[in-house]
Amino acid sequence: MHPSVMNLRYMLSRIPRGQIMARVIIKLGGGLITDKTQYKVVLRNRIDAVSKVISHIIEMGHSVIVIHGAGSYGHIEAKKWHISEGLNPEISEQQYSAIDTIRSDMDELNSILIESLTAVGIQSEPLPPREWVIGVGTEFSGDVNIFKRSPESDVPVSFGDVVDVQGDSMFGILSGDHLMVRLAKELPDVLLCAFLLGDAEGLLSGPPGAEGSLLIERWSHSQEFFGEHDSSIDVTGGILLKAQCASEIAGFAEHVWFIDGRVPSRMLEILSDGQTVGTRIVVDD
What is the CATH number of domain 20-281? Predict the structure, then answer.
Protein backbone atom coordinates (compact mmCIF):
# COMPACT_ATOMS: atom_id res chain seq x y z
CA MET A 1 0.00 0.00 0.00
CA HIS A 2 1.29 3.48 -0.87
CA PRO A 3 2.57 5.34 2.23
CA SER A 4 0.34 8.35 1.55
CA VAL A 5 -2.75 6.12 1.57
CA MET A 6 -1.64 4.53 4.85
CA ASN A 7 -1.09 7.96 6.41
CA LEU A 8 -4.51 9.12 5.27
CA ARG A 9 -6.23 6.06 6.73
CA TYR A 10 -4.35 6.59 9.98
CA MET A 11 -5.48 10.21 10.21
CA LEU A 12 -9.08 9.27 9.50
CA SER A 13 -8.94 6.56 12.17
CA ARG A 14 -7.94 9.16 14.76
CA ILE A 15 -11.17 11.16 14.45
CA PRO A 16 -13.03 10.49 17.71
CA ARG A 17 -16.30 8.63 17.31
CA GLY A 18 -19.30 10.72 18.22
CA GLN A 19 -17.37 13.97 17.79
CA ILE A 20 -19.58 16.96 16.97
CA MET A 21 -18.97 17.68 13.33
CA ALA A 22 -18.59 21.24 12.18
CA ARG A 23 -18.02 23.53 9.25
CA VAL A 24 -14.77 23.74 7.27
CA ILE A 25 -14.16 26.71 4.96
CA ILE A 26 -11.36 26.27 2.43
CA LYS A 27 -9.78 29.01 0.31
CA LEU A 28 -7.83 27.82 -2.71
CA GLY A 29 -5.49 30.65 -3.62
CA GLY A 30 -5.32 31.73 -7.24
CA GLY A 31 -1.58 31.14 -7.15
CA LEU A 32 -2.20 27.54 -6.09
CA ILE A 33 -4.61 26.56 -8.84
CA THR A 34 -3.27 28.67 -11.74
CA ASP A 35 -0.01 30.02 -13.09
CA LYS A 36 -0.66 33.67 -12.29
CA THR A 37 1.93 34.86 -14.84
CA GLN A 38 0.24 33.27 -17.86
CA TYR A 39 -3.30 33.95 -19.03
CA LYS A 40 -5.68 31.08 -18.22
CA VAL A 41 -3.16 28.39 -17.30
CA VAL A 42 -4.78 26.06 -14.77
CA LEU A 43 -2.91 23.58 -12.55
CA ARG A 44 -5.38 20.70 -12.57
CA ASN A 45 -3.26 18.27 -10.59
CA ARG A 46 -3.29 20.63 -7.61
CA ILE A 47 -7.05 21.09 -7.83
CA ASP A 48 -7.56 17.32 -8.02
CA ALA A 49 -5.36 16.75 -4.96
CA VAL A 50 -7.43 19.21 -2.92
CA SER A 51 -10.68 17.65 -4.13
CA LYS A 52 -9.60 14.24 -2.85
CA VAL A 53 -8.90 15.67 0.60
CA ILE A 54 -12.23 17.50 0.61
CA SER A 55 -13.95 14.17 -0.04
CA HIS A 56 -12.31 12.76 3.11
CA ILE A 57 -13.30 15.82 5.16
CA ILE A 58 -16.91 15.24 4.10
CA GLU A 59 -16.56 11.55 5.00
CA MET A 60 -15.67 12.70 8.52
CA GLY A 61 -19.08 14.33 8.67
CA HIS A 62 -18.01 17.94 8.27
CA SER A 63 -19.82 20.51 6.16
CA VAL A 64 -17.47 22.08 3.60
CA ILE A 65 -17.49 25.44 1.81
CA VAL A 66 -15.03 26.06 -1.03
CA ILE A 67 -13.84 29.52 -2.08
CA HIS A 68 -11.24 29.98 -4.79
CA GLY A 69 -9.17 32.81 -6.15
CA ALA A 70 -8.99 34.06 -9.71
CA GLY A 71 -5.31 33.71 -10.48
CA SER A 72 -4.58 34.22 -14.16
CA TYR A 73 -8.26 33.81 -15.00
CA GLY A 74 -9.12 37.19 -13.51
CA HIS A 75 -6.23 39.32 -12.32
CA ILE A 76 -4.53 39.95 -15.66
CA GLU A 77 -7.54 41.49 -17.44
CA ALA A 78 -8.72 43.20 -14.25
CA LYS A 79 -5.33 44.84 -13.83
CA LYS A 80 -5.13 45.90 -17.47
CA TRP A 81 -8.47 47.74 -17.36
CA HIS A 82 -8.39 48.98 -13.74
CA ILE A 83 -11.58 47.11 -12.84
CA SER A 84 -10.95 47.32 -9.08
CA GLU A 85 -10.96 51.13 -9.34
CA GLY A 86 -14.49 51.26 -10.71
CA LEU A 87 -15.89 52.98 -13.76
CA ASN A 88 -13.56 55.20 -15.77
CA PRO A 89 -15.62 57.08 -18.39
CA GLU A 90 -12.60 57.36 -20.68
CA ILE A 91 -12.30 53.58 -21.05
CA SER A 92 -15.78 52.46 -20.00
CA GLU A 93 -16.45 50.50 -23.20
CA GLN A 94 -13.25 48.51 -22.79
CA GLN A 95 -13.96 48.03 -19.09
CA TYR A 96 -17.39 46.52 -19.65
CA SER A 97 -15.99 44.27 -22.35
CA ALA A 98 -13.26 43.19 -19.93
CA ILE A 99 -15.84 42.49 -17.22
CA ASP A 100 -17.70 40.16 -19.57
CA THR A 101 -14.44 38.37 -20.32
CA ILE A 102 -13.41 38.13 -16.66
CA ARG A 103 -16.78 36.76 -15.60
CA SER A 104 -16.75 34.20 -18.40
CA ASP A 105 -13.20 33.17 -17.51
CA MET A 106 -14.08 32.87 -13.81
CA ASP A 107 -17.06 30.68 -14.66
CA GLU A 108 -14.70 28.50 -16.69
CA LEU A 109 -12.24 28.18 -13.80
CA ASN A 110 -15.10 27.49 -11.41
CA SER A 111 -16.40 24.75 -13.69
CA ILE A 112 -12.98 23.09 -13.71
CA LEU A 113 -13.01 22.97 -9.92
CA ILE A 114 -16.57 21.65 -9.85
CA GLU A 115 -15.66 18.94 -12.38
CA SER A 116 -12.78 17.92 -10.12
CA LEU A 117 -15.11 17.66 -7.13
CA THR A 118 -17.60 15.65 -9.18
CA ALA A 119 -14.85 13.21 -10.17
CA VAL A 120 -14.40 12.24 -6.51
CA GLY A 121 -18.12 11.94 -5.87
CA ILE A 122 -18.86 15.41 -4.48
CA GLN A 123 -21.95 17.23 -5.68
CA SER A 124 -21.50 20.99 -5.57
CA GLU A 125 -23.29 24.22 -6.40
CA PRO A 126 -21.64 27.34 -7.86
CA LEU A 127 -22.59 30.62 -6.16
CA PRO A 128 -21.06 33.44 -8.25
CA PRO A 129 -21.01 36.63 -6.14
CA ARG A 130 -22.25 38.73 -9.06
CA GLU A 131 -25.62 37.01 -8.61
CA TRP A 132 -26.12 37.79 -4.90
CA VAL A 133 -23.65 40.50 -3.82
CA ILE A 134 -23.71 44.29 -4.04
CA GLY A 135 -20.54 46.08 -2.96
CA VAL A 136 -16.98 45.14 -2.09
CA GLY A 137 -14.95 44.61 1.08
CA THR A 138 -16.24 42.81 4.16
CA GLU A 139 -19.27 45.09 4.41
CA PHE A 140 -20.76 43.97 1.10
CA SER A 141 -24.53 43.51 0.92
CA GLY A 142 -25.48 39.86 0.49
CA ASP A 143 -26.91 36.98 2.50
CA VAL A 144 -24.21 34.42 3.30
CA ASN A 145 -26.79 32.08 4.78
CA ILE A 146 -27.09 30.56 1.30
CA PHE A 147 -23.82 28.79 2.20
CA LYS A 148 -25.31 27.14 5.28
CA ARG A 149 -25.49 23.43 4.37
CA SER A 150 -25.48 20.05 6.06
CA PRO A 151 -22.66 17.58 5.30
CA GLU A 152 -25.08 15.67 3.07
CA SER A 153 -25.96 18.72 0.95
CA ASP A 154 -24.24 19.99 -2.18
CA VAL A 155 -20.98 21.79 -1.42
CA PRO A 156 -21.27 25.54 -2.12
CA VAL A 157 -18.45 26.88 -4.27
CA SER A 158 -17.75 30.58 -4.77
CA PHE A 159 -14.90 32.86 -5.76
CA GLY A 160 -13.57 36.37 -6.08
CA ASP A 161 -15.65 38.15 -8.70
CA VAL A 162 -16.54 41.41 -10.40
CA VAL A 163 -19.70 42.67 -8.69
CA ASP A 164 -21.99 45.67 -8.93
CA VAL A 165 -21.47 48.50 -6.46
CA GLN A 166 -23.62 51.47 -5.58
CA GLY A 167 -22.68 54.99 -6.61
CA ASP A 168 -20.58 56.30 -9.46
CA SER A 169 -18.09 53.41 -9.33
CA MET A 170 -20.74 51.05 -10.78
CA PHE A 171 -18.57 47.94 -10.31
CA GLY A 172 -15.64 46.59 -8.32
CA ILE A 173 -13.90 43.38 -7.30
CA LEU A 174 -15.04 41.35 -4.31
CA SER A 175 -12.06 39.44 -2.97
CA GLY A 176 -12.57 35.83 -1.98
CA ASP A 177 -10.67 36.67 1.21
CA HIS A 178 -13.31 39.23 2.19
CA LEU A 179 -15.95 36.61 1.47
CA MET A 180 -14.10 34.24 3.83
CA VAL A 181 -14.38 36.81 6.63
CA ARG A 182 -18.13 37.14 6.29
CA LEU A 183 -18.66 33.39 6.12
CA ALA A 184 -16.59 32.75 9.24
CA LYS A 185 -18.27 35.52 11.20
CA GLU A 186 -21.88 34.81 10.27
CA LEU A 187 -22.17 31.05 9.85
CA PRO A 188 -22.39 28.78 12.91
CA ASP A 189 -20.03 25.97 13.93
CA VAL A 190 -16.99 27.03 11.91
CA LEU A 191 -14.14 24.82 13.12
CA LEU A 192 -11.48 25.42 10.47
CA CYS A 193 -10.72 28.15 7.95
CA ALA A 194 -7.82 27.00 5.78
CA PHE A 195 -6.01 29.29 3.36
CA LEU A 196 -4.21 27.07 0.85
CA LEU A 197 -1.09 28.74 -0.55
CA GLY A 198 0.69 27.91 -3.78
CA ASP A 199 4.34 28.64 -3.00
CA ALA A 200 4.99 28.37 0.72
CA GLU A 201 4.26 26.28 3.82
CA GLY A 202 2.67 29.27 5.55
CA LEU A 203 3.73 32.77 6.54
CA LEU A 204 7.49 33.16 6.36
CA SER A 205 10.14 35.38 7.92
CA GLY A 206 11.65 35.98 4.47
CA PRO A 207 11.05 35.31 0.77
CA PRO A 208 10.07 31.71 -0.12
CA GLY A 209 13.20 29.68 -0.84
CA ALA A 210 15.58 32.32 0.47
CA GLU A 211 18.38 31.31 2.83
CA GLY A 212 17.33 31.85 6.42
CA SER A 213 13.64 32.18 5.58
CA LEU A 214 11.73 30.39 8.34
CA LEU A 215 8.16 29.28 8.77
CA ILE A 216 6.21 31.29 11.34
CA GLU A 217 4.28 28.61 13.22
CA ARG A 218 1.93 30.98 15.10
CA TRP A 219 1.04 34.48 13.97
CA SER A 220 -1.13 37.29 15.26
CA HIS A 221 -1.85 40.69 13.78
CA SER A 222 0.73 42.47 15.96
CA GLN A 223 3.61 40.39 14.54
CA GLU A 224 5.62 41.07 11.42
CA PHE A 225 6.13 38.63 8.56
CA PHE A 226 7.52 38.74 5.05
CA GLY A 227 4.86 39.50 2.49
CA GLU A 228 5.05 40.88 -1.02
CA HIS A 229 2.09 42.22 -2.93
CA ASP A 230 2.84 41.91 -6.63
CA SER A 231 0.76 44.86 -7.78
CA SER A 232 1.73 44.16 -11.38
CA ILE A 233 -0.48 41.06 -11.25
CA ASP A 234 -2.63 40.94 -8.12
CA VAL A 235 -5.52 43.41 -7.87
CA THR A 236 -6.91 42.39 -4.47
CA GLY A 237 -4.04 42.66 -2.01
CA GLY A 238 -2.24 39.31 -2.13
CA ILE A 239 -0.80 37.69 1.00
CA LEU A 240 -1.05 40.94 2.97
CA LEU A 241 -4.83 41.01 2.56
CA LYS A 242 -5.05 37.30 3.37
CA ALA A 243 -3.21 37.83 6.64
CA GLN A 244 -5.44 40.75 7.59
CA CYS A 245 -8.58 38.77 6.82
CA ALA A 246 -7.30 35.68 8.64
CA SER A 247 -6.63 37.74 11.77
CA GLU A 248 -10.27 38.90 11.71
CA ILE A 249 -11.47 35.33 11.29
CA ALA A 250 -9.35 34.10 14.23
CA GLY A 251 -11.83 35.61 16.66
CA PHE A 252 -14.63 33.44 15.28
CA ALA A 253 -13.12 30.08 14.27
CA GLU A 254 -11.10 27.73 16.48
CA HIS A 255 -8.61 26.93 13.75
CA VAL A 256 -7.38 29.43 11.16
CA TRP A 257 -4.37 28.26 9.18
CA PHE A 258 -2.15 29.14 6.24
CA ILE A 259 -0.85 25.88 4.79
CA ASP A 260 0.90 24.65 1.68
CA GLY A 261 -1.91 23.82 -0.74
CA ARG A 262 0.40 21.46 -2.57
CA VAL A 263 0.10 19.23 0.52
CA PRO A 264 -3.66 19.47 1.19
CA SER A 265 -3.69 16.44 3.51
CA ARG A 266 -2.44 18.81 6.20
CA MET A 267 -6.06 19.89 6.63
CA LEU A 268 -6.78 16.36 7.83
CA GLU A 269 -3.96 16.63 10.36
CA ILE A 270 -5.53 19.79 11.77
CA LEU A 271 -8.92 18.10 12.06
CA SER A 272 -7.49 14.96 13.67
CA ASP A 273 -4.67 16.33 15.86
CA GLY A 274 -5.14 20.11 15.93
CA GLN A 275 -1.64 20.63 14.52
CA THR A 276 0.22 20.49 11.22
CA VAL A 277 3.03 22.13 9.30
CA GLY A 278 1.86 25.65 8.57
CA THR A 279 1.01 28.94 10.25
CA ARG A 280 -1.78 29.02 12.79
CA ILE A 281 -3.42 32.45 12.99
CA VAL A 282 -4.33 33.45 16.53
CA VAL A 283 -5.91 36.42 18.27
CA ASP A 284 -3.56 38.96 19.88
CA ASP A 285 -3.17 38.39 23.62
Answer: 3.40.1160.10
